[in-house]
Amino acid sequence: MEKEQQVLVVFPHPDDEAFGVSGTIASHVNMGTPVTYACLTLGEMGRNMGNPPFANRETLRSIRRYELKEAARVLGISDLRMLGYRDKTVEFEDPDKLTAEISDMINELNPSLIITFYPGYSVHPDHEATGEAVIRAVGQLPAEKRPKLHCVAFSKNCVEELGEADIVHDISAVADQKLDAIRAHRSQTELMLADMADGLKKKDPATMAWLNFERFWTYKF
């Protein structure tokens, strides 16, 4: 993995960082690279409430805020920014306003790498709107000043239409940190981790591949 000057991660929900990029984040942090994570919402419309349930619709926002901070601590993220948008409404935000906010962060941080969702291939409307805003913000920069864009894609048609991932990171050295970041989002992940426990214990190849490798597509303007 190449050492970066500054990494900016932009996702809409707490736990988006944990599943697909937490090993990559931890690896950059371990190399001494500052990482900023801009999380647009607090995931207050999440469907899971813990297993057994310990949250409700009224308390979930504050619980997920705490979980996000804990995941950031686990990964060593030096700069966590909670942007205050409402969960499941990012697609309805003024696109110019959202783009401008991301542009302001890019101008402030001058990241050499931005990680976000690949528009059209990230399933959830909040994911799509976030990725689109990042692409617009980067696209406004002169080509020679644009940071690298590494995008997460996981729709069923992503490989068919985009080809195999351009970048595959072996993050097995920090797999325990990745699991700890996922566990930090307890309200959302307890049931999933319980279902995966047998695969992790038996080192099921599919489960271990999901844990140890993170895939990205580069966005080309």
TrEMBL record:
Pfam families: PIG-L (PF02585). It comes from the Bacteria. Its cofactor is Zn(2+). GO terms for molecular function: hydrolase activity, acting on carbon-nitrogen (but not peptide) bonds, in linear amides. Gene3D superfamilies: LmbE-like. Signal peptide: none annotated. This is Bacillithiol biosynthesis deacetylase BshB2.
